[in-house]
Design goal:
This protein is α+β, with helices and mostly antiparallel strands. The chain has helices at residues 12-22, 24-30, 33-40, 44-64, 94-103, and strands spanning 2-11, 78-82, 88-92, 108-119, 122-133.
Length: 137
């Protein structure tokens, strides 16, 4: 069953300006350690695109949760990691994880799907949250 859907379009140039002005303070406040490591392994436009895509994914996921960045949901509660094959996955913690638990009916297991792309000067992400019938243990 569909629980929520969200999308976001981010201007990479805006992320570039914020990083230039606030640097590590912005990175540490918004991104998880794994996201920072992934972005900082790259340089130039690739680094900026990595940050912008993750920003867009966080915004999209907050929309899919139905809260935006309110009710205890913070940017760092929403992380994007990659499976060994490269597929992005959302990793929720803190208030975002609690909100997900609130909106998924008993007897169901949440599944979060995320897709991201960037083409300078824009980055885009879409998040879909579904609930599947939980397997019987």
């Amino acid at each position: 069953m569909m629980i929520g859907i969200g999308s976001d379009l981010c201007d990479i140039r805006r992320v570039e300006r914020v990083l230039a002005h606030h640097g590590a303070r912005f990175e540490n406040r918004v991104f998880t350690a794994r996201e920072r490591a992934a972005a900082n392994r790259r340089s130039g436009q690739a680094r900026l695109g990595t940050y912008a895509k993750r920003w867009a994914a966080k915004e999209a996921c907050a929309k899919a949760l139905g809260t935006g960045f309110a009710r205890g949901v913070f940017h760092r509660d929403l992380g994007v990691e990659n499976l060994p094959g490269g597929q992005p996955v959302m990793v929720l913690s803190g208030g975002a994880r609690a909100r997900l638990a609130e909106i998924v009916p008993d007897g169901y297991a949440p599944r979060i799907m995320v897709t991201m792309t960037d083409e300078y000067p824009y980055a885009f992400a879409q998040v879909v949250i579904v609930a599947d019938v939980a397997p019987i243990a």
